[in-house]
């Protein structure tokens, strides 16, 4: 499996959000390895994007990693779920891409155990579901996607990419309507 090199993450944010589709997200743990093909992403454009955690160049303990170089892992908790993002854009430009859904690839029995469910379609069709299934936690915060137990590898490009408004950001003014969510058309693991 060819792990994506550091240079892959040095693309423009919207382009990278599309290029992540079809790549394999892999997490190695003591329990085993679990992975999935990325089928849905959302781009967040930093200081000018009211939906981004770094809107207005906000620097907090949580957002500090967003100001690092491209390819760092940004994990955070929302409600009771851990979510995983790819930091992108040049250093000190706090953009990130949320990985919203993956199609299960390896370690499916381990995913069932972690999620405590029996329907394969429900394993990874949302950002909190996929992190629990793959074993991604807040402890992954600050690592890099090319040199850690959480990494991205090559995969097949989707046949068709669709875009639309991002999800779950109703309190962000006009930013809620930006068409910066991308997904593989007709893939059953897309969140909605």
Produce the secondary structure layout.
Blueprint: H1 13-19, E1 24-29, E2 32-44, E3 73-78, E4 81-88, E5 95-106, H2 108-115, H3 127-134, E6 150-153, E7 161-164, E8 181-184
Antiparallel strand pairs: 1-2, 1-6, 2-5, 2-8, 3-4, 4-5, 7-8
Q: Could you explain the architecture of this structure?
A:
The protein has 192 residues and is an alpha+beta fold. The chain has helices at 13-19, 108-115, 127-134, and strands at 24-29, 32-44, 73-78, 81-88, 95-106, 150-153, 161-164, 181-184. It contains three helices and eight strands. A hairpin with a 2-residue loop joins strand 1 and strand 2. The chain is globular.
List keywords for this structure.
192 residues, alpha+beta, 3-methyladenine DNA Glycosylase, Chain A, 8-stranded antiparallel beta sheet, 3 helices, globular
Characterize this entry briefly.
With 192 residues, the protein is an alpha+beta fold. It has a single domain (6-184), classed as Roll (3-methyladenine DNA Glycosylase, Chain A), CATH 3.10.300.
